[in-house]
Amino acid sequence: MIITRFSLKHFMAVLVLCLGIFLIGASTYMNLPREDFPEVTIPNVMVTTVLDGANPEDVETSVTIPLETELSNVEGLKEMRSTSSESLSVVMMEFDAEVEMEDALRRVKDAVDAAKGDLPQEAEESIVEELSLAELFPILIYNLTGDDNLALSELKDLAERIQDELETLPGVLDVKVHGGREREILIEVDPERLHYYNLTLAQVKGILRGTNRNVSVGASDLPENRLVMRAPGEFKNVADIFNLVIGVGADGTPIFMKDVALVRYSFEDEDSRARLYNFQAGDGSSIGKYVEPKRAISIMISKKTGANVLDLVERCNKVVDTFELPDSVDMVIVQDLSKEVRDTVADLENGIGTSLLLVLAVIFVGLGVRNAILVAMAIPFSMLLSIIVINLMGYTLNNMILYSLILALGMLVDNAIVIIENIYRHHAMGMPRVKAALQGTSEVGWAVIASTATTVAAFAPVAFWPGVIGEFMSYLPITVIIVLTSSLFVGLVINPTLASLCMRVKRGAGEFSDPETEKPTYPLARIYGVFLDVILARPVWTLVTAFLMLIAVVVTQGLYGKGVEFFPSLEPDRLVVSITPPDGTSLSANDHFAKLAEERILGAPGAPFTGPVENLKHVGVTVGLKAGQQSGPASLRIEFVDRGKRTESSNLTMTAVRNRIEGLDASGNRVASPLFGAEYEVIQPEDGPPTGKPVAIEIFGDDFGEMTAVVRDMKTLMEETDGVVRPFDDAATAQPTIEWDVDKPRAAMVGLDQATVSSSLQMVVGGLKSGTFGHGDDEQDIVVRLPEEYRLDTRKIKSVSISNGMGGSVPITSVATANLVPGPVQIKHLDRKRVLKVQSDVEPWVVADADVRRAFQAKVAGYTFPPDVTHRFSGAAEEEDKATEFLSNAFIVAIFAICMVLVVQFNSIAVPSIVMCSVILSFIGVFLGLLIFQKPFGIIMSGIGVISLAGVVVNNGIVLLDAIRQFQRKGLPVREAVVTASMIRLRPVLLTAITTVLGLLPMALKFSLDFANLTYQYDSQSSQYWQSMAVVVIFGLVVSTALTLGVVPTLYYLYERLRVKIVGRYTVEPTRELDALE
125 and 60, same structural domain? Predict the structure, then answer.
């Protein structure tokens, strides 16, 4: 081959190239950013519009629908969801993964501008912004905890100082502080005193705003300089506010603020609470025992796309360490993604190391020390060359990349084995090293290129997988293609060059084959030759037996298999218990529900359950008034201890958590009543691409009454489905609300309008900011409002007067009426249609979640929907359908591409058909492996495994058939050519199959050596993730290799006999004519 001839002539350049690959590759690997899973950028844009005072129906009609009408025409839009609530419209748009975020933002802004003319004039300017998913998944969470003697405000001040420092670090996207209360200056005005002095709240607010200002007066030019003049008026201290003149009495005496109000330091109204249970505090003796919670302030850090998680966390920890914490304050890291990344990378690196040892062991046994070293050199050079390319493509080192390297590890030595083994065969027959390197490589070069091309052709279609899952999974085929291409370069350039310099033949090595027939003489080859003579004498029975085995295994899988799963379910490292009380409950009521859950899960103070559940590291509790991005108003974030320290599977702990909230013991027997009055959900974080809940259905219609009734029925059907865990829906319930109905004509007659009345009510009830006090970190809001007894009693509110702008005031009750009405609900749309959703998780013991989905779908099929109500299955079901369709098409495309490579290689249609039979028969191994390991067929993992297998399986067939046809060209009869070529190619076929199998064996067995700690690992998270694919490839390859060595020679022999009967010749004469064209 030209490239091999060139490399042999310029061997010094090849050696320098090897050194460069080694040095640059090693350096690149050490500095490559690490991640748990690859970052998948989903273009999400959010449009927020405020229409003050409008109810949800008005917001939907006046704002949301006009916006949706324009936004629905935006190019590249995949899905549009909206929520219309009181005074607020939020439209969320997800674009196709290939759309650039800048383009998406520009298109959305243009559409919003086009819709402005259809929006009410009272609506505020719509805000268009990117929704960064990185903000939802912080890489690092610190909790500051203190004892009861330390004020929360001091903790928050400390947290905000840390926040300021962390925000300056490169790579940090956002730092958020949760918990605590901001300081403020509170002015509580006495309405009766106001009335006595004939003043109003609006006047007080106006005077505050007008006084608390620094005003630039101007400048005066003097002969020698310029004087700038200003009139400072900002408050210096609280006494300035206390002694502020706000009016003049009838007798001309000044009225001070202290005459009508109480001015004091205070805190903003409490809208959230947080506490932390630390089960590993101190010496860790509290593990398994109840611990007292501590009040907490959380600091959450999110990273920018592409930032190195390990480096960023290390820099954050260094910043935090510079702060001297008081003795009563503890800093607890409750979430550290860098640890997960480090564990995942180390786990997969150990997997690579273990696989490498097994592969090297087989090569050394099969080829001898010197040849094994030459073959083994392909591994570091191919890997490091691939790492260089991966870095140039902007990829990070993550779970997908590392597993791809493991998958490719066994395959990348295939080329080297075939080439080195053939070079050695020629050299052992007396040919000089350089000539043997050229002849041996040229002889099998095109077969090696074809076998690599078939594997690449199998993986290539998966790289074009659309959508979020496709972008996530595309790292696997791209990485494998890079590694195989690198191994082909190494096999054709580096391996022959090193062989020409280093290969030695052992004494008597030339006697390993018969000099006349070239047949191998070692025992295994002789046994194989006898076996071939037997099956070639009975070719039809051989084929019938193989296909009967396929039918038997397929039937057995259907009867006794574990069904189908969409994505593998992993043991969780953390859980979130989301609690959603009825709408309209107070912060204290929400906190009460959280404490009930805490008592059941964690034990104490007067808990009926005995101690906390197993495996707890720490539990963070947050309580608010509104639902969070991923949880309800109250949530418990449970972090488990490291896997090696767990006393039971975290799946069992998750079941225990769910049972305790339900009031069940470990055996499922009722020991207490359920957690009444609130909906709850035990959430396991998704591993891999976001797919939604395993079981979900969306209900569409126009009448919320009908839709809600259907939702309740769907929830019942879901509850009746085996394997489903506590379904929940998003049908909002009305909350009691006091609605102030303003009489607009009457208000206009006394000089008032809707905005003035609403602003006055806001000042009375919630308070209005009327300026600030202080600067920088000491800046505090100045808030004016009524005392608490007025704000909580509507009868007293009615006595408050409003300034009417005509020099007088009128009572609120003269222009507005308070009514108790059902409060606002949220109106949700999906692609411009009203929608409600019911969804649930599945039990941890469920092996095949797809079977649960199908059982629920069968129940829904028997349900009669109202005429105007439609539905669709969403969540994992929707993604499962898309994935199944794509992978089916990808498999067809891969088979076609492989066939095209084979047709080009052999210039025949019959020969590729023979090779493809081994792909079909490999399903015997696929289903056999799943049956033995009791694993479900994974649509994602097993599906990709089958496609990968198709490319790997044909390699042995190509090498074998190429050798048979070469011997036919030498004039051997077909049967002798089949036997001789098969015996010669036995060792490389076995070695390439065994190395690929051993490369994946640690992952299939969930076992690897821990080289750092000189121990071993079992059942790691990454092995749980990839085991299904490893099992499919291993068993499929083992069976297909056995069949390749038996069925492929038999099929070719039958084909030649049939061809001879038709054509009348025993040899392939056309190839001699084709040789003349070369």
Answer: yes
